[in-house]
Specification:
CATH superfamily: Beta-grasp domain
Structural class: alpha+beta
Distance between the termini: 41 Å
Strand order of the largest sheet: 2-1-5-3-4
Helix content: 25-40%
Shape: globular
Strand content: 25-35%
Number of helices: 3
CATH class: Alpha Beta
Oligomer: single chain
Order of helices and strands: EHEHHEEE
CATH topology: Ubiquitin-like (UB roll)
Length: 81
Amino acid sequence: MTILVRYFGPAREAVGLEEESLTVGKGVTVSEVRSALLQQHPELAFIAEASRFAVNMKYSADNEPVPEGAEFAIIPPVAGG
């Protein structure tokens, strides 16, 4: 199945993309998508440790399923002052 991965902030800078399509197995979880992304983009490893993940604009736990056609977002922590 195919999902849309969206990158924000430092994650976007690390991979050089705003978004991309990713083919994953049916019935995958957030954790499994994260692992697939880290294999494809090892430069995300440090960022992913501190990031939240959202499926269809909702923060999601590692064990939550990712449906076909979902928007999967990597949302790094926000800092400012």
